[in-house]
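Purpose: get a first structural picture of the assembly so the mutagenesis plan has something to point at.
Setup: two entries, given in the order below. No constraints added.
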Amino acid sequence: MISDRIFGLVAVLVALAYIASATQVQTSFLSDPVGPKAFPMLVGAVAALCGLYMVFKPDPSPDWPVGRTLLALIICVIVLVSYAYALKPLGFLIPTAITAAILSYQISPRVMQAILTGIALSVGLFLLFKYALGLGLVPFPKTWFAAAS
Amino acid sequence: MEILDNLALGFSIALSPYTLMLAVVGCFIGTIIGALPGLGPSNGVAILIPITFTLGLDATSALVLMTSVYYGAMYGGRISSILLNIPGDEPALMTTLDGYPMAKQGKAGNALVLSGVASFVGAFLATIGLLLLAPILARVAYKFGPAEYFALYLLAFCTLGGMASNNQAKAALASCIGLGIAMIGLDNNSGLPRFTFNNLHLMDGIDFLVAIVGLFAIAEVFFFIEGKGKTSSIGVKLDKVTVPWREIFSTKWTMLRGSLVGFIAGILPGAGASLGSFLAYMSEKSIAGKDGGFGTGVPKGVAAPEAGNNAAAGGALVPMLTLGVPGSGTTAVLLALLMSLNITPGPTLFTDRPEVVWGLIASLLIANVVLLLMNVPMVKIFVRVLQVPAWVLLPGVTMISFVGIYSLSGSYFDLLLMVGFGILGYTLRKLDIPTVPVILGILLGRHMEDALRRAMVLSDGDATYLFSSPIAIGLWIAAIAGFVAPMFLRGVLAKPQRVTD
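Result (structure tokens, whole complex):
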């Protein structure tokens, strides 16, 4: 119940903000009868109605993860976000190995197995992408070998 | 015969050694993707698109590869249904009902071969249906103006929302989320930015591939982490695989009926393969009556949903190719593929790029034969795939998703956005809000707005123009019916799917 109500409320607020933002869209002098504002405002209005419906007629709440599962999910999100930032400056191999190992550990908590999975996936996928599929991936941080070459 | 000429053109493209090789590779990868529990056709095709895109294949080759994967995933879904009682994808749910009991009786081999043949029959007949029906529909679609297209897009959202969810408001909200996201970026008409909040990364809009991979693949990873340990199931051993000719022969009418039902369900926008396999199974069950023993492991109970499921996969291509409106989650992903290859599906595709359409249809026929040949003798290899543990598979899927999206733009921003969509997808599915309408909204939002604006330009702002032609009125009525009718039918049609993904 409460989940749907909260989500519905959030949806209404976001929809209203969206409509407000749509009114700020600049129109050019060469405009068609509808213009760039109308359709987004229509979408926002429908979304707000749906959100209201969810507030007043909510479905039963799902089982949200609690305790350790929630922690695992939060760790997973943090790791993925860090991975997104790390991929470019640090090259493919090291961030991938670490991320894959942590994800693997979240699914099956055995340290050695997770580390091996991380390294194997990182190297295996790198070889696959780089040589079999020809994607341009950088294995290590560029500065590491800059002096040598 | 025009169709034969066209087919000859198609086969001349599809039978080149390179294209043939792509079809075989696609079928193989697809079957594996379908067989892996939790990695369905939508996820599988979604994470492969960015990679295919960066490989620099030409349009026809990429299309052949990905549709082979799509068909392959439809075949593969049955393997984990039968052996593990876990549907590898949503449409394979019905196959578990009789497939798993059959496997427990020690007839796993028979069930696998029979379902393979049923898949072949379903997919083959659907491809024939596609090549007969699609050109006709394309001719009708020529008459579509902007008003009709606007109504058609609305129809797609309404039926998809109506069918895919328990709650119309939630489905409509999902569509709005997608449409709202599609508006981000530069306005097509005026070239002025909308909803970018002066963020340069948002100027080009949000790439639908980022959204798809996030909503499907990354969200799936979150679900897996949440449900760890729960999905472990005792598998059934597979002994010798022989061809059960008698059972295949005895289910021939079941397969034919299942294919027909599935194909029709597939054509309906939004209904998709899940409904196809459900209707095929239920209709066979009622034909067989109480003595049919459905649910206890009868061959017919395996043949019907598999034929229906694969026929629906083919049927869903009809509206996708002729109108540019996908009939299911996976075809929405295929539409994304076409759009990223700069192919605009629609009636003009049949006249402007016949080599794409007919090459695709021919390669579907070829892929089908390849899949049958691959799935009967090599089924043991695919069974092996099921033993890949989740703690290798899920990190692997995540890494492939990241690399795919990263190689598209080389920007960390898209990766962050993808994780964001993963969280959104997880939350939405938790709340029983379908995610397919979100994808559809992102894919079709711009087209829908353009159709509306062009219609209004033509009519000089007169809103009644939207209802001015019989086709448009018919589409509007169908859209409203498609949205409202499932509310009343819900009691009759016990829910065929839990959550669509």
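Chain A touches chain B through 70 residues (CB under 8 Å).
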